[in-house]
Write a structure and sequence with these properties.
- The chain has 508 residues and is an alpha+beta fold.
- Helices cover 47% and strands 15% of the residues.
- It is built from 19 helices and 13 strands.
- A hairpin with a 3-residue loop joins β12 and β13.
- It is globular, with a radius of gyration of 27 Å.
- The N terminus is likely disordered.
- Its EC number is 2.3.1.-.
- This is 3-ketoacyl-CoA synthase.
- It is found in: Membrane.
């Protein structure tokens, strides 16, 4: 999905470009006001003022009332009690109403969902596929024309993938053995490998898991992937199991959302979410360019996530789920058909990317960010955005739209590693630093595009680098066919010590 979101992000960059008021020659000796240190502190002061306005407003009030309260004597307390004694009915009614409303709130409020731990699958060394090995494999299959080989070579060189990504054994054979049995072997290797490590981390008994959600877009065997897990781990008979298919790279966050909703109505439960993609059965051996991109980008990977709604698990959990925002553009025919699995002219099955993909993805991304912004951005950023919107739409002022600073809402960004071009454009238009983009770029380099599990490899990278501190907020964002763009916001419940994750982190 190397082209996802480019058009929208390019439009954003075009909108934000304005002609300089001073020519380059006349301004060469002037300071860069946008990067002025004084302006930086003015903006920081503004954000601080708006964010803490309540405290700043109440502080003088407290100073004024403190001397009056200090003169409050026991005699005054007795007079107050004597006054209340003759208003017993009012007190009882108010107390009853307060008790009723408090009870109603505690019974209807959403239960907090905790992420106890997660485990990203790290394949064995014999599955590593260097660039040279990949090109030798492509040539030896004899299925690709010279133009197709050259095209795939260019895609891989520009993709951002490194020399240590992984492909399944069935693909690396000559010729590739893309059969159902090999696809099942790959699925079991990824699923059981990730879940075994997760259970070892958490110490949870498989019998205690009450909810199971698995997502894999392009491989949906019978019995299902969920049944394979239930059978392997001998999970209990009344488990609520769900198998999500055909939902693209954003399905991992959809699975989290489904598990969250189920945890709201099933008290004292654990939910196991398994996100993965299958490469074996979906290798494309034809010469349609729109279907060759997936061969170069997608690699083996998967993640197992354990969620809980038990209050007793809060102390040992890593994160708490704060928000999930889902955007679906499937009502539009153009959006619906922009990513389609089909056969080429000679019967080879592959995933075709429509020419409308960039515009569709950009629109979905814009809608998702617009919905998420009011939930996470500080009031200072919302006021600036609203002010520029009113000036532009109502007052017809010629001003550029204000792009909110999402760095004030999140400390960590886990952007789906679909390709280098996507990450470049998001970095530029959200004004992120190399530090913020490092987890996504390193994940693309080290593991490739692992589809729905890639945001979790990025979060694991931040943990391995010792970046996650208590109270930090992480933003996961992913795209998928249909067309969908989904976001998840997590809050760290504790500081992650990399030493405690040694040998249990894919980056160890």
């Amino acid at each position: 999905m190397i082209v996802i979101g480019i058009e929208f992000l390019q439009k954003m960059s075009e909108v934000t470009e304005v002609k300089p008021l001073i020519s380059q020659s006349s301004s060469s000796n002037l300071p860069d006001f946008k990067r002025s240190v004084k302006l930086k502190y003015v903006k920081l002061g503004y954000h601080y003022l708006i964010t803490h306005w309540m405290y700043l407003f109440l502080s003088p009030l407290v100073v004024v009332l403190a001397p009056q309260l200090s003169t409050f004597s026991p005699k005054n307390v007795y007079i107050l009690w004597d006054h209340l004694r003759f208003n017993l009915i009012s007190i009882i009614i108010c107390s009853t109403l307060l008790f009723f409303l408090s009870t109603l709130y505690f019974l209807t409020r959403p239960h907090p969902v905790y992420l106890v731990n997660f485990s990203c699958y790290k394949p064995k060394e014999d599955l590593k596929c260097t660039t040279q090995k990949f090109f030798q494999f492509l040539t030896s299959t004899g299925k690709f024309t010279e133009k197709s080989l050259e095209f795939q070579k260019k895609i891989l060189e520009r993709s951002g993938l490194g020399e240590s990504t992984y492909l399944p054994k069935a693909i690396l054979r000559i010729p590739p053995n893309t059969c159902m049995a090999e696809a099942k072997n790959e699925a079991e290797l990824v699923m059981f490998g990730a879940i075994d490590e997760l259970l070892a981390k958490t110490g949870v008994n498989p019998k205690d898991i009450g909810i199971l959600v698995v997502n894999c877009s392009l491989f949906n065997p019978t019995p299902s992937l969920t049944s394979m897990i239930v059978n392997h781990y001998k999970l209990r008979g009344n488990i609520l199991s769900f198998n999500l298919g055909g939902m693209g790279c954003s399905a991992g966050l959809i699975a989290i959302d489904l598990a969250k909703d189920l945890l709201q109505v099933n008290t004292n439960s654990y939910a196991l979410v398994m996100s993965m993609e299958n490469i074996t059965l979906n290798w494309y051996g034809g010469n349609e360019r729109s279907m060759l991109v997936s061969n170069c980008l997608f690699r083996v990977g998967g993640v197992a996530v354990l969620l809980s709604n038990k209050s007793s698990d809060k102390k040992r959990s890593k994160y708490q789920l704060i928000h999930i925002v889902r955007t679906h553009k499937g009502t539009d025919d153009k959006c619906f058909s922009c990513v389609t699995q089909l056969e080429d002219t000679v019967g080879n099955v592959g995933v075709s990317l429509s020419k409308d993909l960039m515009g569709v993805a950009g629109d979905a991304l814009k809608t998702n960010i617009t919905t998420l912004g009011p939930l996470v951005l500080p009031l200072s950023e919302q006021l600036l955005f609203f002010a520029t919107l009113v000036g532009k739409k109502v007052l017809r002022m010629k001003i550029k739209p204000y792009i909110p600073d999402f760095k004030l809402a999140f400390e960590h960004f886990c952007i789906h590693a679909g390709g280098r071009a996507v990450l470049d454009e998001i970095e530029k238009n959200l004004q992120l630093s190399d530090w913020h983009m490092e987890p996504s770029r390193m994940t693309l380099n080290r593991f490739g595009n692992t589809s729905s599990s890639s945001p979790w490899y990025e979060l694991a990278y931040s943990e391995a680098k010792g970046r996650i501190k208590k109270g930090d907020r992480a933003w996961q964002i992913a795209f998928g066919s249909g067309f969908k763009c989904n976001s998840a916001v997590w809050k760290a419940l504790k500081t992650i010590n990399p030493a405690e994750e040694m040998n249990r982190n894919p980056w160890s």
